[in-house]
Structure formats: C-alpha cells, structure tokens
Predict the structure.
Amino acid sequence: MEIRWGKQGKIIGLAGKNGAGKSTLAKILCGLFKCKSGSILLDGKIVDQKTLTRKTYFVMQDADYQLFTESVRQELVLAEKKNHILKDKHMILRQCGLSGSEEKHPLSLSGGQKQRLTIAAAVAADSDIIVLDEPTSGLDGFHMRRLREIMIQMKSQGKLIFVITHDGEFMHHLCDEVISLKGRDTK
C-alpha cells in the first residue's frame, strides 16, 4: 500500500467488518504494534516504531484509556508536549465544544465529552499523521459536523488523517479515499 499526500493534506477512511484489522493497522501505523512483515516508509526512508510514535497521534476508540491528568486543560498541555508546539487551548476547547470545562476532571465528563477531549488533544499535539479509531462514537449530529470541520481544518494544514468508522455517511462526506480491509478468512 502506498499513500501520498502533500501540503493539501489527505483524509483516508479505513473501512471493513469487525475483526478485519482496521485497529491493528492503525496501531502499526502509529508504532504501537510492531510490523510483522514489510516496512513503513516516510519521505522514502524506512522508519522504526519509535519514529512512528513521535510522528503520529492515535485517538483510541475508548477515550478512558487516553485520559491521564487531573483536568481538561492539563490533557491539552500534555498533548502539546509531544511536538513542543504551544497551541491556543481555549480555541481548541471551543472548537470541540468543551469551553468552560478547563478545570473539570476528564473522567467526570460524559462519554461524548471525553471523546471530544481526546480529539482536542490530537489537535493540540499537532502531529503530522493522526489516526482516529471510531471518533464518532458517543457524538450527536451537531458534534459529528463539528468533528468533520476540525478534521478538514487539520487536513488543510497538510496532515494525513486516517479515520476508522462504520459510519458510511460520515466517511463519504469527509474522506478523499477509502481503504477497505477484508481481513483473513478464519475457516
């Protein structure tokens, strides 16, 4: 598989049935799982897991596994440390519908708010490659549209974004291309 993108950025959907390997592929792309065969190249050079973890940001399907600090604001500060780039935290929280929640404990938020906080952290991290695993789970229509706007904005900054979702309509209105994984036949 070869993926090219430039300054215009790109959004790629990863589709397939449960168990097809979407999340596994995402974790390999982010350096969280070791590639069993083949290589991953960035700018024509083979990269190792450590490099992948530095250059990517992974938004997990279950936000509870990704929240570590004592406040919403601290989650963004922690994310910023990944690439050492200071971002406008108030603007990011406003974009993600979390204004006024800066001092709340992340685990006290609703499921949808937690999901939006992990997405806000991805924006704050400012990585070149972002992978979102089922980012629409727990979001209503309003916040799904807001998420689409955030992803389009990140794309315009030259980011490569992978989105794993079973929401075909969301994918259709957002992605530049879709990679469909078939998985292995276990029979």
